[in-house]
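note to self — DONT lose this again. spent like an hour looking for the file last time. sequence + predicted structure for the chain T wanted, 488 res
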Amino acid sequence: MKTHTLYSFLSFLIIAFIISSCVKDGAFSLPNITIEEPDITPNSSVLAIKTALQQEFISSGKIVYTFFENEGNPTYLEAYVISSDATGNFYKKLIVQDKVEKPTAGIEIILNNTSLSETFDVGRKVYIKLDGLSVSYDDGGNNSNTNPNDDIDPTNTIPGKYVLGHLNAGRLDDIPSTLINEHIFRSAKVEEIIPTNIKLGDIKGEHVNTLIKLSSAQFLKSDLTKTFAGEVYDEFDGFRTIFECNTEASIRLQTSTFSSFKSNILPLGEGTYTAVLSKDFRSEFLVTIINKPSDILFTNTDRCDPPFLDCGNGLVSGSIILIDEDFQSITSANDLTTAGWLNINSNSGNTIFSPKIFSNNRYIEISGFRSGESPLEAWLISPEIDLDNTTDEELTFDTNSGFYNGKALTTYVSSDFTGDISTTTWIRLDAVISEGPPSGYGSFVNSGSINFSCLSGKVHIAFKYEGADSNGGVTTTFQIDNVKLTGK
């Protein structure tokens, strides 16, 4: 035991001697962490990348353009990083824009590397060597050759996404990890990115892949008990709806199910919202993506929810049935009309609510998918219901949704409807509406008890579908069943 102790002590002395021999005067040398500014003079721009692809498309119809290699005069651009993968919400990609403030263009760069934020932090100026890289474009078109107006086209007015990467077997792929240092060079400069204050209605193609800010926004009331991306139906990404207070426009927040904050509950209030503007995986609709939860400053407890019917919170129910429609006897649009329901397409289109059946259950269904209508607005309005002979009226109904890519169904009641939707006073109902999976269908959910006790006279209940069969439009399929109004 004593021999072992002596041996350990001698070993310690030898190691200490070796270390002290390597360090003179007690001064340890620190690694050089200074970032030297690259000797690069930009001769291109992010905007020029887009222009190059647009010209390629005009001349050849291709939506991929490759930059030729020129050793004598390589092509460089400068840009500023606006994305961060520190929370796991971005993966193997950098989003850059051309200016610190008031950018004119942005682009997504796909890279076969992770932990990019450790090197390319938000605000970091970078230089990008384009030689040998390729840029592609996608606006969500299907290139089916059946409808040329729906093809991918970088020269149209539909906002699309430009992506820079490495061409592999004819398709755009990540820049290999071994080539990243040959194409992306970080500057010593880190600037504060000033997001573009904008209204959702003013968004254009040039705003995609840039940092934007909404001055007054909130999550929809129906989203408030949810997590960012931790619900059972969230696959790869969770989508929640950001509501713009001043205009009542909305846009989707996309959050990765691999993000560190996916299980955080959404903030309740109203306030400012800063995010990267992008498009979903298939580039079908616009989305916003945050770098971190603190980019959402919904600290104002006074929300800006649209007005809903408010008859109080008292318990209501009754045995007198005023309407009870399960649609089991409705097998055609004519049957629906015969039963007293009005089925109206507001834009004189062909898409209306239609009877469907599954597992011997009949219901009413509508979808904007392949409708060819943009915008699509359709109304299903109940027969007239007289409330004068009852009290404590209560409405319930069931909805189901499928291939969900956004909210499209809302419900209303009116006491002055005479046949013209546009001249009617519609009061929105605070109802639970199904939010099904992005692929396939969910299950029917109940609306919850909707108190009608403060209403009187003759009323109509309405289901309104608002979507669009175009890039960025909502095409979710909605199903309606078991519409029931009772009283005492």
